[in-house]
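Structure ticket #2291
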Amino acid sequence: MNAQNRRDFMKSALAAAVCVGAQAQTGQAEPAAGGGLVEVRGNPILPGRGVCDPQVRIFNGSVYLYATHDYSPKSRGFRMDNWWVWHSDDLVHWSLVSILKPEETFLRRPFTECWATDAASRNGKYYFYFSAGPKQIGVVVGDTPVGPWKDPLGKPLIPEGLTPVEERDPGILMDDDGSNYIVFGTWDYYIARLNDDMISLAEAPRLIKLDHKAGPYGEGKTDDKPFLHKRHGIYYLSWGCFYAMADNPYGPYTYKGSIVTPETTAADFQTSNIYRDRHGSFFQLHGQWYFACNDRSQKGSTPYFRNSILSYLHYRSNGEMAPIRISRIGVGQYDVAAGPVEAEDFFKLAGGEVKERPGGGFEVRDLANGSLLVYPNVQNLPPRPKLILRFSNGGSGKGRIEVREGSIEGRILGHATIPSTTHWDRYADLEVPLTSSTPRLDLAFVFRGHNGELARLDSWRAVV
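Resolution: structure written out below.
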């Protein structure tokens, strides 16, 4: 951010804090006092605040959560009076940095149907797209990811009646070639390319072709809240936790199923229908993919007062998404008392990639000289623990692993030579004693050695 943008950021954060104080007087769910940092230790993130429909965007290396805001646990229907923007650098600490009021949009009045959102960036400007109930989609623009916001149109970007579906729940795809698309709708989805100004359509919306419809309501129906993301040339159209794949944004899309399953959902997150209301988004940060979505499994939540959760996301060799794990531990932290940590569930990776293992599951491959894996907020470490790394090394040479505190420059806590296992699909345990007696650490695994692949890491654990 430049100096002016930083001043605008602080103005917006201060305005959010003032607005939060006013909301507290009405009995709404209250964020952190003054909009300060909230430390969240697992799922759900920001519990009990009504943060829902999470659309996560990474701007300038930071995380911005554009969300709707369920008014109260006492609500008997959907009441959402404004839109929120939360900020984080580590997916653990969050701060409320912007509140968009409907009075600041083309609506020009208080409004209780501030529905789902998304955001995008182009040429130094930031665009915040929002649903005005189930009938129209608007957009505001700012010089920073948190505003201050201005409505550049004074009218909806997508007005009621433009298509045969409800004009709501925008999702923005920022494609690799600089093109930007908006997708929206319920049951059927429409897509249109945006002009370079990001506030007008370059074409009439087109119906997205989908070969099979299924969702939380059973066969033959999808859901609302569509979202588009892209990885390795594949386009993914999702509606909640269900998705389909295509080789271009318009489709046709091939249905693949749900990434939420009963088998990978912890018992304390089970509900009568674990697929329902999983509205959310996919995003990548520091080489890791995540899924953010609604959750209403926890005590105090209702269909009209929901939470949001975060999970790691991994892709199979054929491009399909593997089922996510929904658990209390969430992301960005690790509890060694709960068992081994899967290597692919890192917070940061530099020099390597996640691939399917021959026997199932995932591993981190292509760990070479200078490769880095970071696992922050590791808790319940015993005094002077030993890390046991499950690895393979099918190469002819021996490398070295350094366990450092927090980063590639952090103090060395322990090190070990990586022996050969003779084949890449043959695994062994490598013991790395640590000098620290601190029960909580940020751990960084640094690999050193000759040119070429030094190791593949499957998991690690801590023992006395």
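Closing remark: The helical segments are 3-24.
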